[in-house]
């Protein structure tokens, strides 16, 4: 199936869930990433139970604490 | 409010913009912007706001200038090492534009003082370097109904979003609560390139100017990310969380909160 992940269209194994996508995308801080699925936030405890379907759009939002 | 010949010359390149004009310049002159943190983000943000003719700039920082700051904190020079950043910042801003009224405050923001600091300002710029301060500024601005610009930077990447009351998500809608200390890398551990702070801090000044003069579209309902290594900007659309702890329908946070301060001398 085709997903748009951080703006890039890519092929992924059929029926994977969000946790698997986070592994495949090698997200550096999987415990502390915010995920938006089709513009809506996914609860951080719900990644394993969030199935992805063809055409979904996923964004990973990372904590960035710097500034000074 | 009329401008004299010198002022008209100083601001001529922006007064000719149809989005600004004399009216916009007057709005800038009457505006009050608070910059929290006189560092990597606060430097370009405050410089461009002073240059643009923002009438009053408040700048808060508790620290002294360190040699390791100068790679990105362009408000301060080599001769300022050891000097309070708030004082050094004030001197640099006044050198650029003596017409700006600059209030320099040597302080850390906390739950006890933040509401008092933001009260007199129209727009707040978060140029802090730690999550407790970023959440504190977000919550205070939501509670006080103030517009502000959030930004964060790390290594070669940065992000920013603008909060305007009633328009789109707040910072807490996106990130919920501060991560535990050391859970995510800090600038001191991971590094940061100075020009990145320049890019993102300048974008914060741009948001403030647009908000003040009422031009264009603000980064509300979106997070703008910048990957300096790849040269990529991305604008990610985000919606508000109805169950947000501070801006949601049944907020549990009704006053500013202090989190354990993770020391991050970015
Ligand atoms: Zn919120």
Keywords for this structure?
heterodimer; A: 68 residues; mainly beta; five-stranded mixed beta sheet; 29% strand; B: 266 residues; alpha/beta; Rossmann fold; eight-stranded mixed beta sheet; 10 helices; binds zinc ion
Structural account:
The complex is a heterodimer of chains A (68) and B (266). By secondary structure, chain A is mainly β. Chain A has one domain: Beta-grasp domain (Ubiquitin-like (UB roll), Roll). Chain A has one helix and five strands, in the order E-E-H-E-E-E. Chain A has one helix at residues 18-24; strands at 2-5, 8-11, 34-37, 40-42, 57-61. Chain A has a five-stranded mixed beta sheet, with no helix packed on it. Chain B has 266 residues and is of the alpha/beta class. Chain B has a single domain, classed as NAD(P)-binding Rossmann-like Domain (Rossmann fold). Chain B has helices spanning 5-10, 12-15, 21-30, 42-52, 85-96, 114-119, 131-144, 171-175, 187-190, 194-213, and strands spanning 32-36, 56-60, 101-105, 123-126, 147-154, 157-163, 222-227, 232-237. An eight-stranded mixed beta sheet of chain B has the order 3-2-1-4-5-6-7-8, sandwiched between helices. In chain B, helix 4 (42-52) runs parallel beside helix 5 (85-96). Chain B is globular and about 55 Å long. Residues 262-266 of chain B have low confidence and may be disordered. Classes of the chains: A mainly beta (68), B alpha/beta (266). The interface between A and B is medium-sized, with 20 and 44 residues. The complex binds zinc ion. Zinc ion binds next to helix 8 of chain B.
Task: Outline the secondary-structure elements.
The complex is a heterodimer of chains A (68) and B (266).
Chain A: E1 2-5, E2 8-11, H1 18-24, E3 34-37, E4 40-42, E5 57-61
Parallel strand pairs in A: 1-5
Antiparallel strand pairs in A: 1-2, 3-4, 3-5
Chain B: H1 5-10, H2 12-15, H3 21-30, E1 32-36, H4 42-52, E2 56-60, H5 85-96, E3 101-105, H6 114-119, E4 123-126, H7 131-144, E5 147-154, E6 157-163, H8 171-175, H9 187-190, H10 194-213, E7 222-227, E8 232-237
Parallel strand pairs in B: 1-2, 1-4, 2-3, 4-5
Antiparallel strand pairs in B: 5-6, 6-7, 7-8
């Amino acid at each position: 199936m085709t997903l748009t992940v951080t703006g890039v269209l890519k092929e992924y194994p059929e029926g994977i869930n969000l946790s698997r996508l986070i592994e495949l995308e090698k997200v550096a801080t999987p415990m502390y990433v915010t995920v938006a699925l089709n513009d809506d936030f996914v609860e951080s405890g719900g990644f394993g139970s969030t199935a992805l379907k063809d055409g979904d759009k996923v964004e990973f939002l990372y904590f960035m604490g710097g500034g000074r | 409010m009329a401008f004299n010949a010198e002022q008209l010359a100083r601001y001529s390149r922006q007064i000719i913009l149809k989005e600004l004009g004399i009216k916009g310049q007057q709005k800038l002159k009457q505006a009050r912007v608070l910059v929290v943190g006189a560092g990597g983000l606060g430097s370009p943000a405050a410089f461009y706001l002073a240059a643009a003719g923002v009438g009053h700039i408040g700048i808060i920082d508790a620290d002294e200038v360190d040699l390791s700051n100068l790679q990105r904190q362009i408000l301060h020079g080599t001769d300022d090492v050891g000097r309070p950043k708030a004082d050094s910042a004030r001197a640099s801003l006044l050198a650029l534009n003596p017409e700006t009224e600059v209030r320099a405050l040597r302080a850390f923001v906390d739950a006890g003082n933040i509401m008092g600091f933001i009260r007199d300002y129209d727009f707040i710029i978060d140029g802090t370097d730690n999550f407790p301060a970023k959440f504190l500024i977000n919550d205070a601005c939501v509670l006080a109904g103030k517009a502000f610009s959030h930004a964060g930077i790390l290594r070669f990447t940065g992000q920013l979003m603008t909060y305007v009351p009633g328009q789109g998500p707040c910072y807490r809608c996106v990130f919920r609560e501060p991560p535990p200390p050391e859970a995510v890398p800090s600038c001191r551990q991971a590094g940061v390139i100075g020009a990145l702070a320049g890019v993102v801090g300048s974008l914060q000044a741009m948001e403030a100017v647009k908000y003040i003069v009422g031009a264009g579209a603000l980064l509300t309902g979106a997070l703008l990310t910048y990957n300096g290594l790849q040269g990529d900007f991305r604008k990610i659309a985000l919606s508000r969380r109805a169950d947000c702890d501070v801006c949601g329908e049944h907020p549990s946070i009704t006053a500013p909160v202090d989190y354990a301060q993770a020391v991050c001398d970015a």
